[in-house]
Amino acid sequence: MSSRSAIPPQEAADRLAIRELIDAYAHCADRRDAKGQMALFTKDTRFLVFMDPATAEPTQELHGREALAPVFDNLNTYKATTHFNGQSTLALDGDRASGESYCLAHHISSGVGAERTIMIASIRYLDEFVKQDGEWFFAERRLMVDWTETRPSTP
Fold first, then answer.
1. What angle do CA 25, 138, 18 make, to 5 degrees?
2. Residue 28 gets which letter from DSSP?
3. How do the pLDDT tens digits run along the chain, 155 residues long?
């Protein structure tokens, strides 16, 4: 087993702040707080969606914080969502960082009558972060959908 040296206090604080940023994104999504979610991004952010991670071209590419509103508003089409964040890796470089985090996103839809479905998406986020005025933001977020499953769901 390898030993790990102590993490300097500023690095530990930065790592915690970035993890809290990732978790805030999921929290805002599940609470339908599009404005709160948008505030986690830089004004000149890039947001790319890859529905097929084997494809080099994104399915959707958005530029700028304001362009994110329709994407986040789309979550309102679901009765409920739960984004469960898993493991993440992070490389810090001063006021910039890059990382990869995993998420299982659960989306409940209501169909005809009492019919419900659940769509589960296995997502990886490839992120670029920037620290501005002492606060971390997403500078770029690549949403990679690795797989999805949709099935009937009962309350």
1. 70
2. H
3. 566 789 999 999 999 999 999 999 999 999 999 999 999 999 999 999 999 988 999 999 999 999 999 999 999 999 999 999 999 999 999 999 999 999 999 999 987 777 899 999 999 999 999 999 999 999 999 999 999 999 999 87
